[in-house]
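Final report, closing paragraph on structural work. Over the funding period we assembled a curated collection of sequence-structure pairs, and we close with a single example.
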Amino acid sequence: MPPVETCYDILGVAPDATPDEIRAAYRRLARRYHPDVNPDPDASERFIAIHQAYEVLIDPEARARYDLSLRHQAADAGGQAAWAPGFTWRAQAPGSEAGRPGTIAALVIWSMMVLLMLVLSLLLRLVIGGRQR
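Its predicted structure, as stored:
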């Protein structure tokens, strides 16, 4: 498994960085990777990671929990990461198991059922209409 970037790595600050240093690093990286400024398709994903890292590190309670999880993670050499290389927010739509032929077959069957219902309703009208006269 490839090494995982921590929030500190994402912002490029030391683990003992002050809130002012974190804010400065966030502003510098946000200007660089903001999707309105940087046309690179990966810039928006990187900007999201930068913003999430900033939110974690700027809040003292969240930062304490994060540091604790990093220490626990280092001890276990596992767990959930803040940012993994190759991670993407772009999801693939689930594919249909039937595929195109299955979809066409389903449409044909439904069409035949609708047509059969129409024919039966016309026959029923003829039978009922003939009895009323």
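Residues 99-133 form one domain. The CA atoms of residues 12 and 43 lie 16 Å apart. We thank the funder for supporting this effort.
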